[in-house]
Amino acid sequence: MKAVIPLAGKGTRLRPHTYLTPKPLLRVGGKPVMSYILDDLQELGVEEIVFVIGYLGDVVKEYMAEEYPDIRPEYVVQEVQDGTAGAVKLAEPFVQDEMLILFVDTLFDADLSITKGLAEEWAGVIWAKEVEDYQRFGVIVTDDDGAMTRIVEKPEEPISKLANIGLYHIRDRDLLFKGIDVALNSPPGPSGEFYLTDAFQYMVDQGSKILTAPVEGWYDCGKPETLLETNAHILKTTRGWISPSAVVDATVLGENTRIEDGVVLEGSTIGTNVTVEAGARIVNSSVRNSIIGPGAVIENSVLRNSLVGGHCTVQGFDGKLSVADHSLVRH
Fold first, then answer.
1. Does residue 229 lie in a domain region?
2. Model confidence over 217-230: pLDDT tens digits?
């Protein structure tokens, strides 16, 4: 089984960080967002991945070569941002059998292993999370057997609370790409783009059965505020840690922190939900609910709800800050 991961977006909601770093490689809990998903795929035994790249694609290639040499990647460039259907269509020459399709704006607690024991009647799986604010999402309508019957974008009426999270397993490769072709030859959606979900609807309309599977958790990484919320969750559950090599001098540490190798904390207060990455230095400062990148220096500052890139210097600042790598902030 191969995986298809579309990565061509520019991540405009996470600027200025995405001027230098592709959105999937922004770090949360001390680790790039995409790497959580890649680790899950390796555990499942997936060794071949088709990456649909565009903006900063060379950075993705370098990262994969350095960090995941055991994965065999294929890269295809999405020249025109025509939506999710167009992105997955580009992977068609590289996929001959069943596939996983994963959009990496989010992290999820999902059992991917169900793909291995799936009964023959199912043409695929679409994972979903029950939400209360269903109007914000594409929602999945199911029958009594848990099979998808419809996907409806941002419904006004409460027809379903099962939000589509962007994680799919498809067995019937040929029918999927036929559905994508139908979608691409139809009028685009309100945003001017073509949606992969229309291809799933085509499959169902042709008689395929797609199982809707639940996820325990679904954590958005697409905006600064949700990236920080996801960081807080990860620190609380799996990634909280204080490195033995960190220097903590006259500093108060709150709950749910990650203090990595070589960090120096002097005369400071590190509140809850803070990741301080390797080699950073925080002096006479207070930081809470923030991510401080590797090698950053924070002095005489009060930071809250902040994203500070790697190797930044921040001096005398009080408030919320979002600055990309190698920035200098003095106040």
1. no
2. 888 888 899 899 99
